[in-house]
Each structure stands twice: as C-alpha cells, then as structure tokens.
User: Fold Formyltetrahydrofolate deformylase from Chitinophaga caeni.
Amino acid sequence: MVILIQSTDQVGLVAAISSVLAKQGWNIISLREYVDPSTTRFFIRIETSGQVNDAEALLLQRELSGILPATATVQVNPIALKKIVVMVTKEHHCLSDLLVRHHFKELGASIQCVIGNHPDLEDLCQRFDVPFYAVAAEGKDKAGFEAGITSIIDQYQPDFIVLAKFMRILSAAFNAKYPLKIINIHHSFLPAFIGANPYKQAFERGVKLIGATAHFVTDDLDEGPIIFQEIIPVNHTYNAQKMRQAGKEIEMAVLARALQLVFDDRVFVFRNKTVVFD
Amino acid sequence: MVILIQSTDQVGLVAAISSVLAKQGWNIISLREYVDPSTTRFFIRIETSGQVNDAEALLLQRELSGILPATATVQVNPIALKKIVVMVTKEHHCLSDLLVRHHFKELGASIQCVIGNHPDLEDLCQRFDVPFYAVAAEGKDKAGFEAGITSIIDQYQPDFIVLAKFMRILSAAFNAKYPLKIINIHHSFLPAFIGANPYKQAFERGVKLIGATAHFVTDDLDEGPIIFQEIIPVNHTYNAQKMRQAGKEIEMAVLARALQLVFDDRVFVFRNKTVVFD
Amino acid sequence: MVILIQSTDQVGLVAAISSVLAKQGWNIISLREYVDPSTTRFFIRIETSGQVNDAEALLLQRELSGILPATATVQVNPIALKKIVVMVTKEHHCLSDLLVRHHFKELGASIQCVIGNHPDLEDLCQRFDVPFYAVAAEGKDKAGFEAGITSIIDQYQPDFIVLAKFMRILSAAFNAKYPLKIINIHHSFLPAFIGANPYKQAFERGVKLIGATAHFVTDDLDEGPIIFQEIIPVNHTYNAQKMRQAGKEIEMAVLARALQLVFDDRVFVFRNKTVVFD
Amino acid sequence: MVILIQSTDQVGLVAAISSVLAKQGWNIISLREYVDPSTTRFFIRIETSGQVNDAEALLLQRELSGILPATATVQVNPIALKKIVVMVTKEHHCLSDLLVRHHFKELGASIQCVIGNHPDLEDLCQRFDVPFYAVAAEGKDKAGFEAGITSIIDQYQPDFIVLAKFMRILSAAFNAKYPLKIINIHHSFLPAFIGANPYKQAFERGVKLIGATAHFVTDDLDEGPIIFQEIIPVNHTYNAQKMRQAGKEIEMAVLARALQLVFDDRVFVFRNKTVVFD
Assistant:
C-alpha cells in the first residue's frame, strides 16, 4: 500500500507515523518526507510491502488521523488501478497514447469511458473497445452541456478526470465538483503564450523551444498546480503547423508522465503548487 | 573561409553563387541553404577549404554582391577569432566561463576587455590578465554613463558586445549604435516571467522547469531575435534562491552555446528572428 | 522533390548540380551539403519547390548522373509516402506507435503489412485494418523460415523493412537481399551491453542511463550504420523489469525519430556510418 | 545536519531511528528511505533543522548505532564543507570548473590542494591561490610515485580525492588506502568504449551520442560504483578531435553534478552500486 499524509509540521511526526506502522508489522520499503520551509507544511509518502483491503485501509487511515494534527489529511491507498474518465475534442494524440497503454495494461489506470464534445474520436475508442459518449456543446447553454457530462461521469465514479485535449473551457462550478480530480494538458509551457493559437505566437516570436504543461484544474483552466513540464527544441524551419505537430509530441509525453506520477500516488497538492516525489 | 548571404529569393541563386566559387577553384566542404516560406527570404552559409586574407575576402565579397539582387547582404569571413567586449555587473558565472575558455583558447573569440558597472569582477579579470574597466552608473545621467562605455568599446572595435549578466537597461540609442552586435543572456525562458525577480515569480507559480534565452539586442532589451534557449528541471525543493542558482547554471550554458554559434558564423538575423545553421 | 547525391568530392560539384536545376527552373528551398574530411566523400540533399512524377524524376536522375563522377549515386525522390513492411515478435510498443501514426496519416509512410514470427500482435493489427502475416520459425530451418518472409515482402515491394522488435537474427543472405532497406531498433545504447538480456546487465552494473539505437542492418545485426540514439535516465529504484519498461519507452521514441529522418530522405549511408541532415 | 544510515532491513527501523530524533527534539525537514528488494538492504537519509558540533554528532552517531543491527553503518554529518584534494594531469576543463566554483564558494567543498603528475596546471592553480604539487611519475616505480602522492594527501586528511582527468592508473594498494573516498570522471559512457582513445573508437563507430561517467574508484579504475552519467549528442560532422571537445564539456558537467550529490551527502554505496537520493 501507499500512504500519503500532509499536515502542519511539528517535531515527531515521522516517529509517530512510523511507530504505528511498526507496531502493526508493516515494513516500509520506500519513504519520502519533505517539509516546505515557506509554509512549514509536512508531506510524507510511505510505501510498504504487503497489501490491504478497503476495510483495513479505512481502519489504518483512521488510526493515523487520530495521532496527527487536525490539519492533517491522510490517504491509505491499496495498490490498485485508478479509475479514470477521459475527455477529448478532436485531436487524437493524447487519447491514442492512453488507449494503447490501457489496452496493454501499462497505464496504471482503468479507462471507464471517453467523453467527446465532437464525435471524431468515437471510431478510435471503438477500435479499443472503450465506451465513447458524444456530448455536443452546440444548442445548449454551458450548464446544460456540463450537466450532460457530469451525468456520465457520475455513473463511473472515477478517481480522476483526464482532459486529453478537451478544448472547451469548463465552468468554475464543474471544476469545483471534482476538486483535485481533473488533470489537464496545456498546449504551452506555462506561463508563456497563454491564450489562443500559442503555436502561431511561438512561431512569430521565433522561439527555439516549445513546451507543454500538465496540471490539476482548479477554478482557472490554465492556472492550477503544475504536475510536470517538458520542452522540445524547434528551429527556424518550423512553421506554425510543424510547431503544432511538435507540440502534440511533447503534450503526449508530458501527459503520460504526469499521469504516471499521479497514478503512482506521488503527487501532493497544497495551495497552488505540487510536491512530487518522483 | 565562411560565406554568409541573405537575399530575396529567386531561382538560380545557389547556381550563381557556387559557380563563382567553382571558377575560382574554391572547394565547398559544407553548405546550408534555406528559403523561409513565410517571407521568401533566402539564407546560405558556405564553408570552403582554404583560407583568404582580408583583401581577398573583400574582392570576393564584391564579386558575389555583383551577381546577387540588390537586397542581398554578403559576408566573406576569413576563419579568425572574433573580437569581443564583455559587459558585466556583479554576477560572475557567465564571465568566469568565458574567461576560462578564453584563457585556454577554446572560446573562438578574443576578449578585448571587460566593462563592469560595479567593480566586483575586476579581481577575476586580473587573475586572467584581461583588462577591466569600471564605469559606475551612479552620479551620471544615462547618456553620460553610456558615453563612458562607448568610449571604451570604440577603442577596441569589437565584432560583438556580450552582455554577460549586465543588469542595467541600455538606451535605444546605445543599442542602435551597435546593430546586431550586442548579445544578451536573459534570466528567463522568454517570453515567460518577463520583468523583475523572475525566480521569485517562478517559485510562486510552482514551475517544474526554468530556462534561459540568449538573444541579439535590438531596441527592446528582452525582445530581440532569439539565438538559443534551453531549460533545466526544478522541483518543489527549489526555493527562489536555489532556483536562482539553477538559473545561473543554465544561463552559463545557454550563453556559451549561443556564442559558439555566433562565433562560428552560423546565425542569420532577418526581422525579429534568427536562422541558425547549427 | 528531394534529391540525394553522394560522390567522391571534387571542386565544382555544387555549381554543376545547381546549374542543372536552375536551367530547368527548379527553386531550391533547402540544401545541405557536406564533405567528410576523412574520406573526402561528398553528400548533398536538395529540396525544391514543385513536384515531379516518376518519369520526370527518372529523366532528372539520368541528367544529374551524366554530369557527375562515375562514383556518384543519385536519387530523385518525388514527395511521396514510403512503402514499408514491419516485422515484429511479441512486444507491441514500437508497432503500436507506428500503427497509430499510420492510422492518422502522421507516419510519412504507408504500412503495407506486418509480419510476425508469433501471432501475438495480429489482434492489434486487425484493430487498425493492417494485414498481418504470421510466419512461425518453429519446425523450419532458417532458410525455410526466411523464404516464408521474403515471399510476403516481395509481394509488396516496400521501400523499407522495419524491424520493430523482431527478435530473431536474420541471415546474412536475407540482409544482403535488402541492402540499406532494413532498419532495426536495438535494445541498448550500442556498443554497450551487446548480447542477451541487456537490462539485466544494466541493472547489475548499476547504470544511471539506458539507451536505444536505431540502425540500418548490414551483415551483422547489431553493427550496422547508426541513424539515431537517445537515452533515458534511470536510478537505483529500477530493477531489471522497470529498466525493460523504460527501455521500451526509449526504443519507441528512437525508432519513431529514426524513421522520420529516413522517410524525409535525410539519411545517407557510406561505409559503416550515416550522414544525417536533420 | 544530515544522517546517513544503511543496514540490513527489518520492520521498525524508521520508527526506531525517528523516535531517537524526536525524543531529542530534532525536526526532520527531509527524509528519504529505500529498501533494495534484491539485497534487502535498507538506506535512509535524514536532514534535520538545527546544527550539531562534532562532539554532539559523535554522541548521536553512537546512540543511533546502539539501536540498529550490527550490520548498520551510521554517519552523522554536520552541515559543513567537505575537504577535498584534486588530482590532475594536463587537461584543465574539470579543474577549471572546480576552481571557479571553489573561488566563489559555490562548490560545497574546500579544495585543500591540487596534485598533478605534470606541471601544466600549476599556473591555473596559482591564479586561484590554491596550492599545487607536481609529482612526476617519471624515474620512479609506481610505489615510489604513489608514496609521493599519499604523503601530500595525508597532510590534508581530505574527505574525498577527486580525479579530475588524472590519466595514470592507480594501484590497488592506493585505492584500498582511501576506500569510497576517490571519485573519478571517466571519458566514456561506461561500459562503452573502455580503454584507450575512446573518442577515436566512437568516431569510427559513427555514434550519435557520447557520454561521461562519474564513479567511485574501487580496485578497478573504470569499474567502481557509478554516481552519475550523462550524454551529449554528436553527429557526422564530429571528427575525433571535435568529439574529444564535446567529451570535455560533458565530463565537466557530469563531474560537477556527481560531486554536488556527494558533497550534499546524497550518495550511498553498497557492493558495486550506488543509491542516490537526488
């Protein structure tokens, strides 16, 4: 199992937590702890040998919460596939990568379904036997559109919702319904070139790198806690279209890496930042 | 020698240029040509075996100009060290790297002198027997300050002026005096985090990468044609100070790489962008 | 079109070649030329605006050959998809990547068919409507096994044969039948850890990097001209199995990049090395 | 302070160790623990707020040893500069980097002296006011040569000996005298191209990457536990000399990174491998 705890810091937290585990005979095979000096927030990730069922996890979660400050949050996660819902529009590159990894059981998650605001990617999902739901935005107000989406999501009770090039902006209400459960891949190395058509902006500026950012979605689509970022070099031969293609490659790679970190229980969020024990 | 030509494009330019060279018996050992589709601007870099003196270079330059469109610019560069002046403030990291490479004849350029608006780095220059001039900004207006600098620069007639963490903004008049001769290393991955204290901004945003940009200086300090950019990964354990240290490492590396490209005659500028034949 | 020429070097080759093109009104939009100093071998890649049909290409190819040394080889390639056959065993990662890119017309090549010495990947090919042929090695001698393969390949007359984790060693006779047409992805950063079970070797040595190499196949499976290599960092938490998974990621990325270079006509081979105009 | 412990694993070690610290009021601000599954070896690195003097460190070291298995090794390190001796031959690039960082107090270590088997780098050391000792190998047997070196080293009692392009092979006796204290930068991405003139080998093989390896020296010069490795891309334009220059850049970068890890107490050695908590 993996245990994730964050809390206000005080002397003795590691001893208190590890003593509970030692008394129950759990062997810690990997542990990372960090106290952020600017906020004095304590973060710990503990991986033990041995496995728990859900009832045992709940019991242990309660026991650990009992010895920790009231500000602490405690997760006890059995080693298990996360359940995810993927949302897309028309671009296939991130979805293709997820579907292939899922098909060969290399994703670390189980894709419950894919929701698209356009039907373009239905065919791809069918090829991998994954349910696809088309929810058109046209002809509805935003509340109606999002109600259509949430009614599908809520059937599946996913651990995470992955925006794999979902190109519509979701409302604050939608985002608030799934706090720290929505992961987005952003078509730029934030905070550069925020807004429409970043590759045209990048081309006109003559940049030598373009990047991508995977982040949790909070109330502002492009401003949530960053999980992972990476870049790819470009040069003068890249027009806006070729930059877009390079952008797809790096988006696919960044999203894959960020999801692996999240599915492995390696990412904490506190305020607007992440702590990643990679 | 290395020949650099840019021009409006037309059919037959490569044939015309290479025929001139063939007739004179020059062997082309490396050639790169590119036509930018958005501007139909033609760029060519030709490296020949054999060497020329200055008089021969001038002759060849005139002959090539004669067969090319009036919009063409032609450089014929003997293989020779570039002459540079380096400008600094207090941070040593870029200057140290340049001085070491220069000392061991690995820079591809000859440092004529170093000009600092603070005296902090004089000691370092003395250790490597390179002349250092302190020109204080205090107690003068900008015109007076810059006059002090240009009077030193103009003694040396450098090919390039390298702003190696020179932390004062130079006037448009200064920049216009040395067109496409001033190279700056910028403390960020442009266009992100423009302005003061980028590392504090980066820390507060929780980024996972920081970068640096080397660019020619035009009339706006941070907006000239980009020569090279690179990034370095950071994580949650980096506070603003540790980010600054990582920033120094990447600034040093990016400036070194950009200068190598420029000193090897691999960089063209057209409008606000570069073409780099690396 | 793209023109690829290699030849013994002499003064005037660029002028001769570009004059032929200029007379016919072809505009050169990108050109790279290089003379290898250790062999004085001349390499040139020319990209023109405009397109040719096969008959025109043949005519131009003959005209260029006529003005060049007898040692020259000349290719005139219309901009067109390459035809490829992919050979696999059981591992899907490289094939999945190729099939997805092919399906969305991003591969730069047309996959004619997939040949597997095990049937495992037939299902994947069917999902993407690509013909799959199972050719078992069991119960045949090598000549018989390879005859089964070549009879399929020769139906399709592919430009290239891609060994996408094909885990059997092909005979010198097979390789000689398709000179410089077979591309392999090798499970290591050559020349390190040649031989069986490289990830176990890498684990036992405690390396901090593992790599992959894409190369043309000549008479020795792991020793042909290298097209592209890249590495991925690993650390002490990687056991042999996790190294193998990281190896798959880098193999997939390296093969994709190498094929893009080959399909874009950017790779020359001379003796045991490549010249890559990337 | 930083505490480094390794031991055979058993349930309760983290609890036992952290309880000792909690009782004494130490706050753990960063902790990493790992149990290697193939050897069941336990590794832990603990960073606390607050500082200790040498006497307090010794006391705590004894107290921790008392509660741990007899196989455990315990280090309690006050936050302090490491003392190092640097050994060189003729190449300056690694030494220059170390001297600059040392001069500006960015190395994390104090260079006690430099020992060269040639006098070439004495001038450089003098420029940075660092003692240099020339110990010629000529005219002595190996034992005599090494006795000259050890007599200098032992005056300084360094924590580490850095072979910064020291090009002579040291005897097993020499290495055994300084167990896990000697760090070498190797001119290759081990295990590729072991032996003389690796860059010529790399050139002839036509590789697209070259690398460097920093490792502890055990009884075999090139085979000790690897601390860090990195590569740099090369291409067909790199002859053996240009590969050597690229090799210098990556050697310098790899050694700097490895030393930073060692000086920050982030590297464990067990048998022939390292565990690096970077």
Remarks:
- DSSP finds eight helices and 13 strands in chain C.
